[in-house]
C-alpha cells in the first residue's frame, strides 16, 4: 500500500468516528509524518514502516523549535498509535502480509511513548519554570511625574538577574546530557564531549524535587549548566527527551 494512500484511508475512516478537533490535529501530524517518511528512500510503502521510524519522527519533532506541552505530547503519541494500530489491522488481513517485511506490530511498539513523552514534557515544564524563577518583568517603570504616573519603561534586553558571586558562568557547559542517576533533588549528567575527553559525569546538578520525580536514567537533557558552591545549576533548558529517543549527534 502506498504511504500516501494508507494515510488518506486512515484519515477518511477517522473522520467518520472522531471529533473534528482530533481529526484536524491528526491531519497536521500525519502530514508532517508523511513528509518525514518520504525523505527516506527505504520507505516506499506503508508496509516498510517500523516502530523505529515512528520514534525517529517523534525525536525529530522534539528537536524542532516548537514547544511540546504534556497535553500535545499525549495527543501526538495517540495520533501515531492510532495510525500504527490501523496499519497493523490492514496488513494482518492481507494474504501476503508475511511477505511484506513486517516483523512486529507497530502499535504495541509505541505504547511506552504514551507515558514517556508526556512525562518528559512535564519535566521540561518544571525545569523551565525553575530556571526562569528569577526573571525580571518585561518592562521597568522609570521615574514618576508629580501626579504619580511613570514617565516610561525600559527593558534594554535585560530579563534575568545574574548571580556571579554564586554561579561560575565562565565554566558553564551547554550540551545534550544523558541522565546517569536521579536523586531526590538532583541528577547526575554525562555529555558526549565529557565521554570523549574522559572527564566523567557532572553532579550533583540541582533540580526541583518534582522534576527529579519525573526524570529517569537515560533521559536526554539539552541544557546549559554551571558550577556553584553547592554543585551545578541549570541555567537554561532547551528540551527533555525520554530515554530511547536519544537525539544527540
Task: Describe this protein's structure.
The protein has 249 residues and is an alpha+beta fold. The protein folds into 2 domains: 3-111, DNA polymerase, domain 1 (Orthogonal Bundle), CATH 1.10.150; 127-241, no CATH class. Helices cover 43% and strands 20% of the residues. It contains 8 helices and 7 strands, in the order ααααααββββαβαββ. The chain has helices at 3-17, 20-38, 51-63, 70-92, 106-110, 113-131, 192-197, 209-214, and strands at residues 140-144, 150-154, 173-182, 186-190, 202-206, 220-228, 231-241. The protein has a 5-stranded mixed beta barrel. The protein has a two-stranded antiparallel ribbon with strand order 1-2. A hairpin with a 3-residue loop joins strand 3 (173-182) and strand 4. Helix 1 packs antiparallel against helix 2, helix 2 (20-38) packs across helix 4 and helix 4 (70-92) packs antiparallel against helix 6 (113-131). It is elongated. It starts with a helix and ends in an 8-residue tail after the last strand. The model is unreliable at 97-102 and 154-158 (pLDDT under 50).
Keywords summarizing the entry:
single chain, 249 residues, alpha+beta, 5-stranded mixed barrel, 7 strands
Give a topology summary.
Elements: H1 3-17, H2 20-38, H3 51-63, H4 70-92, H5 106-110, H6 113-131, E1 140-144, E2 150-154, E3 173-182, E4 186-190, H7 192-197, E5 202-206, H8 209-214, E6 220-228, E7 231-241
Parallel strand pairs: 5-7
Antiparallel strand pairs: 1-2, 3-4, 3-6, 4-5, 6-7
Helix pairs in contact: 1-2, 2-4, 4-6
